[in-house]
Amino acid sequence: MNSADPQTTTSNAWLARFAKLVVCVTFVLVFIGGYTTTSGAGMAFADWPLSNGSLNPAGWWENFMMRLEHGHRLTAGLVMTLVLILFFWVLSRRRQLPRAAMPLASWALVGVLSQAVLGGLRVILDPQGIEATTTTIATTFRILHGCFAQIEVCLVVSLAAVLSPMWSQIVVKPSFRKVARLGWLTAGFIFVQLIVGATMRHLGAGLAIPTFPLAPGGGFMPKTHNAYVDMNFTHTRFLALLVAIHVILLARRAIVSGEARLARPAVLLLVLLVAQVLLGMFVIWHLRPPVLTTLHVVNGAALFAATVFIAVRASHAPNADATNESASTHPLPEPQA
């Protein structure tokens, strides 16, 4: 059976739809996880993987903090199950899929399992502030947990991009190489921004500079300097400006590339950038309300994922996919002993 067979095409279309479902549920998990952290409910249960020693702890729905954390764990379990199904589905059809699909599915599975372990260690190692050394370790795992969530989002988004029927319809042009290079560079800057943001968030430095765009006293540069203020300045001013410039340049380059399948996500990228800037400002002006702060986190993940999505599409290698398809249709003979 070759890749043009109608039954194969239909099956691959359902696989692509399922991958999009995984992306949507993953973003729901990012929101729930972000809201749990913002609300201070991350340690509603002091054990893991069970919650108070049970899969269905008593009173978890009536208690707001328990409901957030246990809901977070249940949603994480759902995402893990969906990614596992997606992995085996891709594995079963790997000969009819683009060559990049199997590695991406494998990394998505490794990523979701690693994320679960990091989340568990974040709970197990959290001593509720009793020992300073252990608290530092627990905070490190909280930051890693937040950053790895962004990577997992990008992995499932990249896999969905490769599995999409549009992947085989993209007409590669010479301008794609420049779009891809700028896309990966921009994604790198955004990830650094996310790391600084997660660190600032978990260290409680989100309002170290409580005004925007000017610092207290009316100047652009804060008059007081310490680790928290400098970290806040780096996130809300320096890296924010650097990311914004590169996102605008990337969107412009993608729009003028002549390929609608790059131009459309580039427009979305600009919308997400504007939304992220506005959300960031409102978070500061309204002193970090939980919903706005969480939306800022989720939109940041979407901005990162959209950038990676454009970079992945611009890095399209049709010859490699054609080779994979040809190999599945006409397999090479086994080497003789």
TrEMBL record:
Entry membrane topology: Multi-pass membrane protein
GO process annotations (BP): heme A biosynthetic process
Protein's UniProt keywords contain Electron transport: no
Pathway recorded for this protein: Porphyrin-containing compound metabolism
Cellular component GO terms, alphabetical: membrane
GO function terms (MF aspect): metal ion binding; oxidoreductase activity
Main location: membrane
Domain of life: Bacteria
Keywords: Cell membrane, Disulfide bond, Heme biosynthesis, Iron, Membrane, Metal-binding, Oxidoreductase, Transmembrane, Transmembrane helix
Cellular location(s): Membrane
PANTHER family, alphabetized: HEME A SYNTHASE
Record-given protein name: Cytochrome oxidase assembly
Organism: Chthoniobacter flavus Ellin428
Upper taxonomic lineage: Bacteria, Pseudomonadati, Verrucomicrobiota, Spartobacteria, Chthoniobacterales
